[in-house]
Amino acid sequence: MRERTLHPREAHLAIAAARLQQGLPDFKERYDKRAGIAGTIAQTVCALDMRRSRYIGLAKTHLQHVLTATAINLIRVGAWLEEIPFAKTRCSPFAALRAA
Questions:
Q1: How far apart (Å, rounded) are the C-alpha atoms in residues 76 and 9?
Q2: Cα(8)–Cα(96) distance, rounded to whole angstroms?
Q3: What's the pLDDT tens digit per position in 18-39?
Q4: Which of 67, 42, 44 is nearest to 55 (CA)?
Q5: H helices within the chain, ranges in order?
Q6: What's 23's DSSP letter?
Q7: What CA–CA distance (Å, rounded) separates 34 from 85?
C-alpha cells in the first residue's frame, strides 16, 4: 500500500524551492565539499573512535583534535604510498538499472 503525505502550503513551497536549488551547478559544488567532509568525519569515527572527546577542557580537546587530524593524514599517506585504492562508492539497485 502506498501512502501520500500532504504538507502545509508553506512547507510544500519550501520543499519545492529546495528541490529546484538541488538542480543548480552551484549546489553540486557545495554538496561535493560537504560529502568530502562527511567522509573524513566517518573515517575518524570508524578508525579512531572519535564519537566523543576523551578529555575535559577546551585545550585538551583541541590537542586531541589536532592529533587525530595528524593521525588521519598519516593513515592516508600510508595508503597512498602503498597504492591502496579508494573504496568504490555504493550504487543503489535503481541507479544500476538506470545506468544499464
A1: 48
A2: 35
A3: 999 888 888 888 888 888 888 8
A4: 67
A5: 9-22, 25-48, 58-81, 93-99
A6: T
A7: 21
